[in-house]
Amino acid sequence: MRYSVVSRFRGTLLGALIGQKLASSQDRTSSHSYDLDEIAVIGTKSLIKLGKLDLDDWQYLQQPASTNNYPSMKVILATLPVALFFHETPQKLRQNLLHVLQIWEDNPIIRDGTLAVGYAIAQILTEKLHPPSLIPEIIAFIGETSTSLPQQLSKVHTLLEQGASLQQVQAELSKQEKLTQGIAMAFYCFLSTLEDYRLAVLLAHQQSNIWQQDNWRLHLHNISAITGALSGAYNSIAGIPLGWQILYSQADLATWRLSNFAEMVKLADALVAVWSGLYNHALHSEQLGTQGDFSTEEELPLPLWSPISQNIDDNPNLQSQPLSPLWVFAAPRVIRSR
Fold this sequence. Notes:
CATH class: Mainly Alpha
Structural class: mainly alpha
Distance between the termini: 9 Å
Shape: globular
Radius of gyration: 20 Å
Number of helices: 17
Strand content: under 5%
CATH superfamily: ADP-ribosylation/Crystallin J1
Order of helices and strands: HHHHHHHHHHHHHHHHH
Helix content: 55-70%
Number of strands: 0
CATH topology: ADP-ribosylglycohydrolase fold
Largest sheet: none
Oligomer: single chain
């Protein structure tokens, strides 16, 4: 395995955050806040708490947040935790992505875009990504649809094979509806700079010139975030420039219901722990004092690099030590690489 699952989960969530923060910090013409919406974090907390997708819990936790007039491109970002949590099985991935989309007003383009991004992340996390065949596989995963997104992704596929420049791709896609164009451009920026997170998000930001005359700057920022999520998943947190990580480490994440960057890392670690079966929040919520809500550093479960996978049989000294309620033990060779 090239990168650990923990590193890829972190890279996905932090890659999206930094991609959007970078774009918003360079936009001096708008007073809007472009922080990723709190629903993404609310959804992550719900998955950690319940170990499954529960729309009623998502909607309960998001109060008083409202999904009315929720920016369309942000819906794709809000579903990232679901894509991460159900990445192992394509059928469950599709089922749960479509299920969570019921929270928002139905938009066929956003539905197809959510499936496209979710499938790409799943292929990355399962180490099955084959760049030349990714877009054809995504089109098959989307299935029959009334939108033009599959056709535009197919154009991107052809242009990538031809080694087309950003300007050529923009010209080819410029006549398309903005949502479709934005999703297709995010995949171009990711796939054309596959091994370089920094270059991918900077390339996504270069589109600002073609949208600066209209009201689509918000979508530009979300395209940078989607590109950042895809590239962050592929290159992991290790591929995100350290300078950017330090720069945004104390970013105001109030709209995420988090106080700082480090809490986002811990939230990603907790999601991996629950997904892997190493941690059951329901068994420890009383000791943690969380009641389903992570609000301080002490309340988050231990990160995965803690000694939670040691075997008592392999180390008799552990038998005489007091055990933390968060330690998990397993028979030899039960816990293995996924």
